[in-house]
Amino acid sequence: MSESPVPHEPPIYRRIADGLRARILSGELRDGDRLPGENALMAEYAIARATARQALAVLINEGLAVPKRGSGVYVRLFKPIRRHGSRRLSREQWGQGRAIWDADARGRPFDVDRVEVVLEQASDEVASVLDSLEVWVRRRRYSVDGRPVQLSTSFFPAHLVEGSAITLPHTGPGGAYARLGDLGVPPAHFTEEVRARMPAPRESAMLDLPGGTPVIVIARTAYTSGGLPVEVNEMVLDSAAYVLQYDFDA
Predict the structure, then answer these.
(1) Burial code of 192-226, b = ≥16 C-beta within 10 A, e = fewer?
(2) To the nearest whole number, what is the mean pLDDT of the chain?
(3) Mean pLDDT across the stretch 117-143?
(4) Which of 23, 61, 116, 142 would bridge 150 by S-S if both were Cys, CB 3.0 to 4.6 A apart?
(5) How many secondary structure helices (H) and strands (E) does the chain include?
(6) Between these two residues, 230 and 97, which has the higher pLDDT value?
(7) 221-231, pLDDT tens digit by residue?
(8) 12-75 is a CATH 1.10.10.10 domain
(9) Domain named HTH gntR-type: which ranges (predicted)?
(10) Is 190 in contact with 86 (CB distance < 8 Å)?
């Protein structure tokens, strides 16, 4: 008489994934290391290829690993960026000529690429907020430790920023907010709305996201002390790369 299976024992692909996950979280397998491939798992555990593929898919879907076509599956372990909402937007930051991203990266190397600055017709939504039919648009991608983590698109009223460094690829020390200060309309108040969704194909490609990874979308509007809206910014964040921190007084 054969023995009954152990109750509630997870399937073999789950147990393999659990073992690989433990090796990643312990530091035995580090960011960028190649995980055992399907053939190696098949030989080690005497399993079918579909089972080996399932085991690796678990880690990919958790955001702990990323497949590279024709190369294998690699550990994608990343120290999260702690995004402090009020600290990064403080006038003490950009008003002193420091980049907002200095507050996010905290000494980690960061890079800005895919910069595009264009004059466009505003969408109905942006036009209603900025009260401007034409907007200067700044699109860019941010990377930390060599990994793309955020796409950002800022809209500014064309009549307000025309001829300023905001319309150039490089805005200078302190970024666009410092340049708004030079124009006499420094931001004094911000509102942010946060939601999560699945990425569009272009977003997945630009952020190099594994399948199944959602993004965080932050929509921000900047206002002067008199309540004049001077920027609308939509940011798309790799959800696996961020911790969002907000501090409030009781």
Answers:
(1) eeeeeeebeeebbebbebbeebebbbbebbbbeee
(2) 91
(3) 97
(4) 142
(5) 10, 10
(6) 230
(7) 999 999 999 99
(8) yes
(9) 10-78
(10) no
In this predicted structure, the answer to whether residue 2 has a pLDDT above a threshold of 90 is no
For the entire predicted model, the pTM comes to 0.78
Cα dihedral 16/74/109/199 (nearest 10) = -90
Which residues of the chain form CATH 3.40.1410.10? Answer: 81-245
Nearest to 148 by CA among 204, 101, 200: 204
The tokens describing 189, both together, are: 């108040």
Residue 10: other Cβ atoms inside 10 A: 11
> Within 10 A of 30 (CB to CB), how many other CB atoms are there?
10
Continuous H helices in the chain? 12-26, 38-45, 49-61, 85-88, 91-94, 100-105, 124-130, 158-161, 175-182, 201-207
SS3 210: coil
Tokens 């272009």 belong to residue: 202
**Which segments of the chain belong to CATH 1.10.10.10?**
12-75
Contact 220, 85 (CB under 8 A): no
